Amino acid sequence: MKSIKDDFLEILSNYQGILHKVNLIYFKNASDREDNFQEIIYQLWKSFPGLKNKSSIGSWIYAVSINTSISKLKKESRIEYRENLPESFDKIDIIEELSLSEVSKMLLGAIYNLNEIDKPIMLLYLEEKSYDEIAQIIGISKSNVGVRINRAKELLKQNLNPLNYGK
Questions:
Q1: What's the rounded mean pLDDT across residues 99-114?
Q2: Are 102 and 69 spatial neighbours (Cβ–Cβ below 8 Å)?
Q3: Do 74 and 97 lie in a common domain?
Q4: What is the pLDDT of residue 100?
Q5: Which of 82, 97, 118 is the last residue of a domain?
Q6: Can you give the chain as a three-state secondary structure string?
Q7: Distance CA 67, CA 22 (A)
Q8: Does the pLDDT value for residue 19 go beyond 70?
Q9: Domain of 144?
């Protein structure tokens, strides 16, 4: 018979890609991603005994990962003073560590510039989650999901338009 710890580690092993994706859209710096990864695991472990619906584990992991990341960003913004970044700052410097195509790098950079709520919505949309699933994970209405996706798509189109580079 498997223990709770064994169940948790198996789930974590099967779904750790979600944690990495969420980290990637919220944190540019590798050490920030590592710290947040550990915090997400801790939050998942704390809430695991209360998980009632084992059929929606992916949704649960997305929700905990997104909420933990947003909480970390809010906490850091209250604590740290952030100077304006120099013009030469590479918005997608973390991508250099990954083997992504140029288009993927551009898309990730554009998604990184979305607000806290629209980032995970677009991530889930790109993961081909239904509007119902996205609404459940994020905690907003299905119609609000549709509106936010359409607005985010427009922003992404504008940000990815080659005529807008250098502005």
A1: 76
A2: no
A3: no
A4: 55
A5: 82
A6: CCCHHHHHHHHHHHHHHHHHHHHHHHCCCHHHHHHHHHHHHHHHHHHHHHCCCHHHHHHHHHHHHHHHHHHHHHHHHHHCCCCCCCCCCCCCHHHHHCCCCHHHHHHHHHHHCCCCCHHHHHHHHHCCCCHHHHHHHHCCCHHHHHHHHHHHHHHHHHHHCHHHCCC
A7: 10
A8: yes
A9: 85-167
What amino acid is encoded at 110 in this protein? A
Which pLDDT score, from 0 to 100, does residue 150 have? 95
The enclosing domain of 11 has a CATH number of: 1.10.1740.10
In angstroms, the CA 61 to CA 45 distance is 11
Q: What is the 3-state secondary structure (H, E, C) of 32-54?
A: HHHHHHHHHHHHHHHHHHHCCCH
Same domain, 77 and 108: no
88's CB contacts (< 8 A; 6+ apart) are: none
Place of tokens 């779904």: 15
Query: Mean pLDDT across the stretch 41-63?
Result: 88
Q: Looking at the structure, do residues 97 and 28 belong to the same domain, yes or no? A: no
Please state the rounded mean pLDDT for residues 141-166.
Answer: 84
Say how far apart CA 37 and CA 35 lie, in whole Å.
Answer: 5
